[in-house]
Amino acid sequence: MSNVVDYGTTGDGVTDDTEAILHTLEAGDGTLQFPAGNYLITRTIPIQLDQRSRFSIDGCGGSAKILMAGEGPAFHLIGTHQQSADPASFNTDVWANQRMPTIQHLEIEGTHPDADGFWIEGTMQSTLVGILLRKLRNGIHIRQHARNILISHCHIYHNRGVGVFLDSVNLHQTIIANSHISYCSQGGIKVINSEIRNLHITGNDIEYNYDAKADISADIWIDSSQDNSSVREGSIVSNTIQANYSPNGANILMIGHHPEKNQKAGMFTISGNLIGNQETNINLIACRGVVVSGNVIYSGHHHNLQVNGSRNIVIGQNTFDHNPDYEPNQLCTGIRLIDSHNCTFNGSVIQDCQSGQHTVPESKPITKNGLLEIINCQRITVNGCQILDGYPNGIYIERSKDIIVCSCNILDTRPEPKTEFSVQWTGPGSGNLLTNNRLQTQVKIDLNSGVLQTNNAFG
């Protein structure tokens, strides 16, 4: 590897080392090794991969820091691969010289308001390991076209924009794993205006990525509402995803194209995560084919889970909870399905507020009709759930068809019960069934709601 000190860098954090680093690229072997030190640069270091014979950056175990004092990215990786990951799609130069550009064990800190860490485009198998990115605009900005990106063991922390930004990109086979992505004001991981397949977010701590003054915030933000964009075939697994309340904020926000058209976001699993503390913890809008299972979801200021205008959503075996050790700070939260079709809700525990109202200081009061609300939906099955301590109702269903609620405990376990009705069902509706449930209080069902009641136990 080419040691940048041998080509004239000082690493003192004061002298501009930009020209010396560029000289290392041109005169060295195409790789960069940074010994311990602080390397001030004032403009982008472009890495034209078609002009290199394979490429890497090594920060000597994290002891090297780049101070980016200019506008744009500290390093811009530019490849020429515009095809798929199919081996037959590669030209000779890409596979021989451009595959797997690797950056490892390096810190980048921004000292310019528009400084970014990395821009990546046209690459195959870009690999970033052990990177610290802080005080930047965007940490890692992926654009245009890329394949097979790995981001692992990184700390992307306290940035003004987005931690990992997938922006107007055609991108397949991407894994973001085992990293801390926190305190990035415009989102931890954000996807907009892109065609994405095989995006996997696993084993990360993704926290406090919000701006209380912004119109909307999210820790993981996937937006496919733009024409010609779609995000499918992915997973969000085994992460801790937490934040503080922000207006219209979410821990996971996934937006498809339009409820009346083919959904552009979906074919995703959200499993095994700890998710909490935003306005709406999981917010699925115009999605199709999402499985939400095996999560602990808690303390959503408005909703722990909201499904809006979506199709074929499976919600199974989660706990929507409030730990009593956190009292008296509780939120009267819940779950809401609206304008959605073909969904199942099974095997979950919902006991996420014992007080029946917000008791967190300065929380905005909200009005809700039940712990689980189903509004203007069709073909929804709620089966085998513990729905406990609802307020004002356990389940509230309105203007819905072909809804089945069966084999659930809908109870109020508080010393002083607050649930008014175990189930309130208001019409018009048809083809609805309430059967084989254990109900502590009476139900309130409109005559025009089309509900058949059988084998329910009361009291």
Structure overview:
By secondary structure, this protein is mainly beta. It is 4% helix and 51% strand. The chain has a 30-stranded parallel sheet that branches. The chain has a 17-stranded parallel sheet, with no helix packed on it. The longest helix has 10 residues, at 18-27. The radius of gyration is 25 Å and the shape is elongated. It starts with 11 loop residues before the first strand and ends with a strand. The mean pLDDT is 94.
Question: What distinguishing features does this structure have?
Answer:
single chain; 459 residues; mainly beta; 30-stranded parallel β-sheet; 17-stranded parallel β-sheet; 2 helices; 47 strands; 51% strand
**Quick one: overall form?**
elongated
Tell me which oligomeric state these chains represent: single chain
Helix amount: under 10%
Q: Taking Cα atoms only, what radius of gyration do you get, to the nearest Å?
A: 25 Å
What percentage of amino acids are in beta strands? over 45%
The secondary structure category is: mainly beta
Q: Stretches where pLDDT falls below 50 for ≥5 residues?
A: none
The number of helical runs is 2
Tally the beta strands: 47
Mean model confidence by pLDDT: 94
Report how far apart the termini are: 76 Å
Largest sheet: 30 strands, parallel
Blueprint (SSEs and pairs):
Layout lengths: L11 E5 L1 H10 L4 E2 L3 E5 L3 E4 L7 E3 L5 E5 L3 E7 L13 H7 L3 E3 L2 E4 L4 E7 L1 E2 L2 E3 L2 E3 L5 E13 L2 E5 L4 E14 L2 E5 L4 E4 L2 E8 L2 E3 L9 E7 L6 E8 L2 E3 L6 E7 L9 E7 L2 E3 L3 E6 L1 E7 L2 E3 L4 E6 L2 E6 L2 E3 L13 E4 L2 E6 L2 E3 L20 E4 L2 E6 L2 E3 L4 E6 L2 E6 L2 E3 L9 E6 L5 E4 L2 E2 L4 E2 L5 E4 L2 E2 L1
Parallel strand pairs: 1-3, 2-5, 3-6, 4-7, 5-8, 6-9, 7-10, 8-12, 9-13, 10-14, 11-14, 12-14, 13-15, 14-16, 15-17, 16-18, 16-19, 17-20, 18-21, 19-22, 20-23, 21-24, 22-25, 23-26, 24-27, 25-28, 26-29, 27-30, 28-31, 29-32, 30-33, 31-34, 32-35, 33-36, 34-37, 35-38, 36-39, 37-40, 38-41, 39-42, ...
